[in-house]
Amino acid sequence: MKPQIIQQGAEAIISLKNNQILKDRIKKSYRFPELDLKLRKRRTKAEAKIIEKLKKIINVPKIISTNENQIIMQYLSGKKLSHAIPIR
User: Fold this and answer.
1) Among 6, 31, 46, 51, which residue is least crowded by beta carbons within 10 Å?
2) For residue range 24-50, what is the model confidence (pLDDT) as tens digits?
3) Rounded distance between C-alpha atoms, residue 31 and residue 13, angstroms
4) Nearest alpha carbon to residue 14 among 57, 61, 84, 59
5) Which CATH number belongs to the domain containing residue 58 in this structure?
């Protein structure tokens, strides 16, 4: 099954595949390759760490696996956070 893109931003592409969320950090061609890899790796690791800490407070997706540039987590049905919080 081909992943279905559900969101794309400047930092990552988020897709759905086999009832799992895949968050792939986008390579930036304008950065030095070593710096780009280091930044993507650091940000991915930091995000996974934050999600793990949040699960003690709120319902967040379970992280299935991570690597340098990707987080795979369980899919939780419901509204996107951006749709659930009113913006003034």
Assistant:
1) 46
2) 999 999 999 999 999 999 999 999 999
3) 18
4) 61
5) 3.30.200.20
